[in-house]
Amino acid sequence: MRLSLGENNNIQGLRNFTEWLLKIGDDLVGDTTDDESIVHIPSDILIKNFETALDDFIDFVYPDMLSNLSVENYFKDRVILAPTLDCVTDVNNKMTEGLPRQERVYLSSDSVCAEEGNMEFELDAFSPEILNGINCSGLPPHKLVLKVGAPVMLLRNIDQTNGLCNGMRMQVRRMENHVIECKTLTGNKAGSIVLIQD
Q: Which PANTHER family does this chain map to (predicted)?
């Protein structure tokens, strides 16, 4: 996490906040009972309106997103980290909804190459509904909804020699049926245009 001064340049306030965060990380803050700590969070950093919390958070991290879609380092300098895959899905869906262009849906393959001896069992055990519902780390969702301008991240190594590695962040420039054109935002080839093919 990188903290920076806001408009009021409250250096002491920022210093106090960073020390508080470090103490939380070192387990020096809070009341510990039964191996669980209760940390009291100051009210000035709590989310006040739960119904608009995600919208407010996205607006905070990506201020004036629509007017900055073509700004060189806008998405490179900002990221939202989420604790669970469900949170990642919520953030992705909300950000995609906020983009003005037409969405395109990409679906994963939802069939199994069954062995002859166990074919009936495997077809029942691995039905399309089960395969499409898998949501685990390292696998893309069954239904990927994208729009031009959306920030994306690679989840696996595609071409290490050209820098297309797990964790690389890119921005969608164009989409076709089986190819997505992106501009790389991170890595040693930042700024280059790549084609991702299914």
A: ATP-DEPENDENT DNA HELICASE (PTHR10492:SF74), PTHR10492
